[in-house]
Here is the input.
Amino acid sequence: MSVMEEIRRRVGQYPLGEPFSVSEMRTLGQRAAVDQALSRLARTGEIHRVARGFYARPKISPVLGPLSVSAPKVALAAARAQGAQLSISGAEAANRLGLSTQVPTQTVFWSDGPRRKIRVGNQTIVFKPRRLLAGTESSAGPVISALKYLGRKGLTEEMVEKLARELPVNVKEELQRQIPHLPAWMEKPLLRICR
Here is the structure.
């Protein structure tokens, strides 16, 4: 099977709109052959470049036309390619959970991989190296990151009640499993959130 056929087969395994890294294709042939095959697939419209070193099969809405790939999906593809774990920054997590109205200017992820930046359209994804807090790679990760960001003094009673009301059961169960591994000050608010 030629490099082009191998790459076309591998690309076909990704869902529409799911980004993948060029480095994930490197095992299929020499670098120049892989780059050339990806370039040809992009010219024919089978894939499109979503960021430097990242492609996706186009996802097309009957109403809106081609849909763009989100920055967090590209971040996950980058982590997968590097074998790194990610957690979203506390500011981003607090905003997504409705605990803060501040919108971060960049999408920041803490990673056990290298520091880097990726441009996705008009957005910048920033990977900052940091020892990940226990549980941040789990479904409870955004809550843990948000609490760490807010801190003991910044976490209000209203925030605790909001999380207790709105978090799904599976996230609460994961939070309960993570409590013994987290800073002591988080235990009391997390127990109230999980009740």
